[in-house]
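Here comes an entry:

___
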Amino acid sequence: MPVTRLEICTEHLSIDQREELLDAVWTALRISPGMVTADGNVELVLSQCGGLARPEDTPLVRVNDLEYRNVTPGRLVTLMRRWVR
């Protein structure tokens, strides 16, 4: 099974926003940036997403090739429930 890549784009993201998203991922999956879940299904990455991330779209999260804009920690948890096996 392929690994699901969860990517949090860091452009225009405040430290508080970043930490809130990372806390949500940690609570749900018990991984930090650069880690893969124990079952090998999900990888978490912080990255510069280039021109994709506009200030009005942040926080921007990518799951494999799908982009999600204006992602709150609560919405991120909902998204993770959809694709975490």
Remarks:
- The CA atoms of residues 60 and 69 lie 5 Å apart.
